[in-house]
């Protein structure tokens, strides 16, 4: 199963670029920017990656991104991620960034977006990895700040394809940002939102009905509501599931208890993603492999999950089909025909 997963073509649809910040690179960038990290070394920092809930992680995640100051920092961060996924046969990635995590520290919006985008373009040109870039709103901040941030995003429509919603879910329901997402959709942005990671099914309903999402990020808790589950299945709405994130943030008690099979049996278009791999212990291959071993996925299940990923990208249909054909060829070459 390991080499089958490693060599399989994959798409990643739920990835926070700031969550790919490996401690070694964080220390290197901190040093060149003359910033002191509150950890003695890489080991001490890694030891702090012990979370009981989403907020424990977010506190460290915002602290980590604090060392990003110059456009080259954003480039280096993104390029490290691109070379990593290249080694894992990820052919397409749609990544998030959190502009407010940078502008709140007086780093200009364009410094972040230009550095990230330049690395993504290099990844496409040099390594053939296609991409989409989605700006996310920090839901613990207010709606006015979100709208002002979105307006800045509109100045970079040549680089940004959509709007997402992330950060502390509980107490910050999607309805807080209805106007922001209606405006983003009217301007042609695709729409995604974290919903049902820690928050209740009601937040997933709001993401669908008020924000008009094109995909749901996480969505685990939708399973608590049969009518909601049926609706998501009927609409063919993708869920960007993140197994190792779910484990590290205690959304599931252990990976063997992960509901991925229930999701597939319910007809949900579940995809596999790494979320914040530097913090959660693994990139795409580790997420696929550890999940497959924990819940005993078949190769056909694994192909189904990878196919869901390609089908749920925001690529034009023709580009999507090229990637799906590669996956089909891979499945056929490995005798997997029933997916
Ligand atoms: N898993 C997650 N949930 C909410 N906000 C995030 N920001 C980065 N990772 C996140
Ligand atoms: Zn996420």
Automatic annotation (TrEMBL):
The keyword Zinc applies. The record marks 218 as: Important for catalytic activity. Zn(2+) binds at residues 14, 16, 194, 275. The active site is at residue 197. One of its GO terms (biological process) is adenine catabolic process. It is an enzyme of class 3 (hydrolase). Keywords: Hydrolase, Metal-binding, Nucleotide metabolism, Zinc. NCBIfam families: aden_deam (TIGR01430), PRK09358.1-6 (NF006850). Belongs to the metallo-dependent hydrolases superfamily. Adenosine and AMP deaminases family. Adenine deaminase type 2 subfamily. This is Adenine deaminase. The lineage of its organism: Bacteria, Pseudomonadati, Pseudomonadota, Gammaproteobacteria, Thiotrichales.
